[in-house]
Design brief:
Helix content: 10-25%
Number of helices: 6
Number of strands: 20
Length: 352
């Protein structure tokens, strides 16, 4: 005998399976059947969902059955809410294209090579297809033999520029790109020197720093060289596309690498600290970081000093409150080593 459900049980089950889908949601759905103008998809709601043929692929000649396999689960974008028949309208094409753009950005970031298929010749170059995304290869970025390539031919390319918002993807034949890059690097390396201040554009951000394009060459700006202040992550101060002035601090001709510094373009705050601070001074500072071993306190702009955990606990116990980042605190300079850029703090006697 089956389990008997109360009204409350049924209501609970209905709520469990009522997903409240809406336009703009990304949902997973199982392809159930085909119609003359699209496919029926089960997205797990009480309502049915339909993918029109024009929302399946950017290729108008592609058949729905060739792309969406019956019995297979895919991701879809809800493009229209339930109609009067209780049916959602979905798009597979838009989700697929979004994934393609993300993958292309990863290829660009990794400076990898990809294979593309020529779609057509146009004035000034060729149009290529990459999983539904159209890219353009200017004539000057093609090899001589590719100038006469036919639709359907494949070309190995590098990504020059990518802008999803503008639907803009510019590519270059791999060999042409490498030849051009070799010439660009040669020109840049012949003109720069350590200590030189140059303008560049932030083109990529990683956990360990940022890459800044100088004259066509991507150079590394390490995390430690972004600011005199502590920087948790490069995105705290930098953004892709931002133009900045940087100092060239190292050139490795053999490995073709250039290292940069942003903080060196600003006055070193430790010079001011050496002029103004001495051991025994009492300074009001702002807590910038809290760690298991103590608190970092900014005693003058750009200069952090360490207040050990023992002193921090003593202060909090005497005051009866817990300090947090941004709080002000009076400290005493116990040890000052400007050469190593280190300051150890303690508490003034009247704070204990």
């Amino acid at each position: 005998m089956g389990k008997e459900y109360s009204n409350e049980d049924f209501e609970s089950l209905l709520l469990k399976y009522d997903y409240n889908f809406k336009k703009g949601d990304i949902v997973k759905g199982l392809v159930c059947a085909y119609e003359s103008d699209g496919a029926i998809v089960d997205i797990g709601s009480k309502s049915t969902a339909f993918v029109p043929s024009y929302e399946v692929s950017a290729d108008k000649k592609a058949r729905v059955e060739e792309i969406l396999e019956k019995g297979t689960e895919y991701e879809f974008l809800i493009t229209q809410d339930c109609d009067e028949n209780g049916k959602f309208t979905l798009s597979y094409k838009k989700v697929h294209l979004a994934h393609t753009w993300t993958e292309l950005q990863s290829v660009k970031d990794a400076d990898d090579t990809i294979s593309v298929v020529v779609s057509q010749h146009v004035k000034g170059g060729v149009i290529v297809d990459i999983s539904g995304v159209q890219g353009f290869i200017p004539q000057g970025q093609l090899c001589a033999k590719e100038a006469a390539c036919e639709p359907g031919d494949k070309i190995d390319v590098k990504i020059l520029t990518i802008d999803k918002a503008q639907n803009n993807l510019i590519l270059s034949n791999k060999k042409v790109y490498e030849t051009n890059m070799a010439e660009t690097r040669k020109n840049v390396f012949s003109q720069i020197e350590v200590g030189q201040i140059v303008k560049g554009e932030v083109v990529r951000i990683t956990d360990f720093g940022a890459f800044v394009n100088i004259g066509g060459v991507d150079c590394l700006l390490p995390l430690s060289q972004i600011s005199w202040k502590w920087v948790e992550h490069p995105t705290d101060l930098l953004s892709v596309g931002q133009e900045i002035n940087v100092e060239i601090i190292d050139i490795d001709h053999e490995k073709q690498r250039i290292s940069l510094s942003l903080k060196n373009t600003e006055p070193d705050p430790w010079i001011k600290a050496e002029e103004e601070l001495k051991e025994g001074d009492v300074k009001e500072g702002v807590i910038t970081r809290l760690k298991a071993f103590g608190a970092f306190v900014e005693v003058i702009p750009g200069v952090e000093a360490l207040l050990p955990q023992s002193a921090l606990s003593e202060y909090q116990n005497s005051k009866g409150n817990i300090l947090k980042v941004g709080d002000k605190i009076d400290t005493k300079i116990i040890k000052f080593n400007p050469k190593d850029k280190r300051i150890s703090l303690g508490l003034p006697t009247d704070e204990v």
